Amino acid sequence: MERGLTPVARRLRRDATDVESLLWRRLRGRQIEDVKFRRQFLIRPYVADFASVELKLIIELDGGHHSRSNADAERTRWIEANGYTVIRFWNNDVTENIAGVLETIRREILNARGH
Predict the structure, then answer these.
(1) How many domains does the chain have?
(2) pLDDT of residue 15
(3) How many angstroms separate the CA atoms of 34 and 113, rounded?
(4) Is 7 a residue whose pLDDT tops 50?
(5) Which of 6, 4, 41 has the alpha carbon at shortest distance from 20?
(6) Is the peptide bond before 45 cis (omega within 30 degrees of 0)?
(7) Is 51 helix (H, G, I), strand (E, B) or coil?
(8) CATH number of domain containing 41
(9) How far apart are alpha carbons 64 and 85 in whole angstroms?
(10) What is the average pLDDT across 94-100?
């Protein structure tokens, strides 16, 4: 773990957005296919919103500020180059279609397991 990012990750967990909290309530406690997720997971030099270390699966939530961000594309390339799969959801997808988001995550989990 990179010490400089640890306080950032702690702060992000403490100050989670409503959308992050909504999705976290559905991911925590192995609720989807018995997969353990962590939130604000350090994958230096980045902090991912949610991660399954076991499956090398990263879930990122994007608000409006991400729509023009080349940094997000660079971040995704770097994370994927390090063996992770990244799936992204817009915040409004989580708030307006949580069932669809959870189904997409479930399918990714099954895919990662080779089912």
Answers:
(1) 1
(2) 66
(3) 12
(4) yes
(5) 41
(6) yes
(7) strand
(8) 3.40.960.10
(9) 22
(10) 97
Angle at 17 between CA 16 and CA 19, to 5 degrees: 120
Contacts 24+ apart (CB under 8 A), 38-41: 39/13, 40/9, 40/10, 40/12, 40/13, 41/9
Residue 17: pLDDT band by 50, 70, 90 thresholds?
confident
Higher pLDDT, 78 or 70: 78
What are residue 112's DSSP bridge partners?
none
How do 85-90 and 57-62 pair as beta strands? parallel
Q: pTM here?
A: 0.85
Q: To which H or E segment does residue 100 belong?
A: helix 98-112
Which residue reads 């990714």 in tokens?
108
Asked whether residue 1 is domain-assigned, the answer is: no
- Domain span holding position 39: 6-112
CB atoms within 10 A of CB 78: 14
Within-domain flag for 99: yes
